Amino acid sequence: MKRMTHLYALLIAGVIGINTPALCHETTPAQALSGIQLAANSNSGKVFIYNPKTLHWYAYDNGELIRSGRGSGGANYCPDLRRGCRTPSGTFHIIRKGSAHCRSSIYPLGKGGARMDYCMFFSNYYAIHGSSDIKPYNASHGCVRVHIHDARWLSQHFIDIGTKVIIKPY
Predict the structure, then answer these.
(1) Domains contained in the chain, number
(2) Is 64 within the bounds of a domain?
(3) What is the CATH number for 61?
(4) Interacting residues of 37 by C-beta distance below 8 A, sequence separation 6+
């Protein structure tokens, strides 16, 4: 958080510009700050935010950034379904969690059972889960994929049933 506060101070002071790359997760200061502003406007407590435009997730506790990382959301188009698979934007809450050995009951089609390590469902069909294959673009059937070590941390140390989840628009 100190780094983000420092970036904000430099931006306000005019030392860095809006397009100056930040070293924080390959985002620009504006992209990093957009997550902070969204969390600052939310209620106190834990909030998980995924931004499909920047391919980053953020974990806030009482408005303070605790951890963040790269992620991948739903694809614009899924050939096997012949339709879009974007992760729905909006505000949700975690409704159930699975173990380190969680698996999909649907995808991929015809092969059901893709790994979804440490799945944390924010709707009946969409979850945040670990994956060893985080693409540099939104590539899933709608879930938010994060690195397995991040999913483990989120599941074991941050996300509980009821934790707020915000999916920003594409």
Answers:
(1) 1
(2) yes
(3) 2.40.440.10
(4) none
Tokens of 11: 């931006």
Q: Are 50 and 144 in contact (CB under 8 A)?
A: yes
3-state secondary structure of 4: helix
The b-or-e profile of 42-70 (16+ CB within 10 A means b, else e) is beeebbbbbbbebbbbbbbeeeebeebbb
Task: Give domain status of residue 137, yes or no.
Answer: yes
Domain that holds residue 122: 45-167
**Residue-level pLDDT, tens digit, the chain, 170 residues:** 555 544 443 333 333 344 334 434 444 445 555 554 555 455 579 999 999 999 999 999 999 999 999 999 999 999 999 999 999 999 999 999 999 998 887 776 566 678 999 999 999 999 999 999 999 999 999 999 999 999 999 999 999 999 999 999 99
Is residue 8 domain-resident?
no
The answer as to whether 31 is a domain residue is no
Q: pTM score, two decimals? A: 0.76
